[in-house]
Each structure stands twice: as C-alpha cells, then as structure tokens.
Automatic annotation (TrEMBL):
Protein name (record): Uncharacterized protein
Source superkingdom: Eukaryota
Amino acid sequence: MPALLYKEILIGLSISDHDVSQILNSFHSVVLTANVQFDNKFDGFEEAYKDGTVLFVAFKSASQIIREYTIYHRGRIIDGTQQNDSTTEQFNYNTVQPRSEKNDRKHIHSLYENIPKYDTSAFGTQIAIREIEEVIKDQIPVPYTMAIRFRLSIPLDDILVFSGFTDYLNSLFGDLKIKFKINPIAFLFAQVNSIISMAQYYTMNKTDIMASGPDKLKNIDLLFRNWSLGYQYTKQFTQMGCTLDLITKISIEQITDSGLKNLMCSINPVIFSVKNQVVTEVNKNMSGYKATDDCLKRFREFYANKQLDVPSQRVESSSFPTSATTAGIKTSQNIPLSHATDLCLLFLKMLEQQLVMKIHAIIIYKLLYVEEIFLICQ
C-alpha cells in the first residue's frame, strides 16, 4: 500500500534464510513520486534549447531522506534509537565520510560538480525544459505542478545507528526492523550549467540534430559562441522552499535584416517546493550467508561469557544561545574534545534553510587515539 506524506514505513531488516546479515553491503531501495511546484512556466525558450537546458531535483545524500526512525529488536524498541532529527544526524555523519565513499557508489550522494557529467554517484532526476513545458502547458493556476519519480538507494551503514556494524548474527541476536518517515524538506534543486548540458545533449544526439536541418545546428552554435560567463544564475544546490535565480528564458533576437542574430538570456527568481509525495515501493536488499552449527555454537559460547560491544559513532548537536552580531558571536561553549575528531561551525545563509543551522560536534568512540581537527565551514 503506498505510504503518503508523513506516514510511517515499517520494514524488516533481517532475513530468516540468513544466519549472518552483512550490514555493510546492504541497502534499502525506495521508489517515490513527488509533486513539485514552481512559480515560473519556463515558456520563453528557443526550440533548439529546450532539450539541452536541464534542471536537477535531488537529495544531497540518499540517507537524508529519512526524517525520523525507530529500530525494533525482537519486536521491542531499542533504547536510544528513537531518532526524530535523522536528516540533521545524517548531514553530520556525511560531513566526516571519506569522499571516496560518496563518489564510488551509485545513486548515493550528489555533488554539484558531478551533475553535468551524468555521474552515477549523483542521486536525483534531471528534467529538461521540454518535459516541463509538456506537463504544465495546460495548467492555469500558479504555482505549476509536476510529478517527478525518484528511485534511491539508502545504504544501511549510512544510517548512524548501523555505522558500527559489519556482520549481524540473526540467529544469535534476533531479528531487526526499522520504522521511518520521509522528510519532504530534504529535497534540493539546481540548474545544470547550460553550456555543459547543451554540449552533452549535442554529443548524444548529434545524428538527429544534423538530420533535423541546418537551422537547429546554427542556433546551438550561436549558444556556444555567444554564451556569457557573466550570467549570474545560482550555481549551487538550494533547498526546496527557498528562492534561487534560474535561467527562465533563452531566445534569439535578429539584429539586422541580413540575418545577424544575438542570444538573449533572462534570469529570474524561482521558488521550488514539494506539495506532497507518495512512497510506492520499499525493498530490502540484504546480503548474508548461512553458518554451520559448529560455527554458531562457538559464537554462543563466546558471547555467553563476554558482553557484546558494538563500536559505534555518536553525534552531538548544540545551538548557540544567542545569534551572531556584527561584533561577533557572544557566547561560550564547553565542549569535551578528548575523543572529538571533527568540530564544525555551520552558519545558515537563508532563514528557510533547515539542514545547516546548528553547531555539530562529531565524536567517534571507536578510535582510542585521534587527532583533533577543527574545520570552519562557511
């Protein structure tokens, strides 16, 4: 049954056919459809540029889609796993993840510089202006609405509570379940660099473009020759609900009767938001293996006399009691740094942005000797 906005989703993690589940190599696959709203129709584009001008709607990291979650062990809630601010928690954890982990896995983490490359690590959907035009051409009221389908993969070890696990012994420790909610404000959007996206479109559709006649080819060439680096549109991800400057029109103006043309580009503020969303499919992809009776017996004997210690990571968040002023931040914080590996000061640039609005101290307890690193993130 589809799960609507803010509805809880409960799914089992352990598989009875496995004696040991490999948390490190397992993930959730989620399919959802979101109705995205925007207040501009993008109806001024030259015909030759509609397929090559692209918007990107995505998540910064797939795990940030989880708003809150609860872990169940043998049908009972595990103490300390009722996390109601999971998006911030995953943002913190993602801060200290190695860059290689973000780039080497498919549809997990979106970096703005990777979007024009059609990199498989990016998680999101690219929407051409022509697609927007076809969907909203008959819509009269503002804002305009467009349904976008996403398929995402959430690695279990990207969720902080599972980050210390590699293997989980089902038959010894019992079955696990997770209940979570989707966060609609975790969506991001951006405009792909028009020159790069147009070059990609031309490269992949060169035969069709040349077969369509010389006019379309000349217009694309005009875009490449006359594009200005001074076009001041927003070249970064922006959270849904915020305003950013987008290219809303690219047209051609004929200057002289002899056929001399000029490229015209309009940039306007546009607001994107999520009206609602429906989760249509949730799959568990769990790796695991069977174990012999002798192996399980040795495990039982081992843990019968020794307490199970699960290496884990902890995130602490605290806010300044006062706001920043022109004279600086007037406050004091006592933060123990005996095990701190990263201390990040994060300052919001827009009032609407809710993902980066706190001070995050990430404390890793599985390291006995660590180097204290201080990062100031602006």
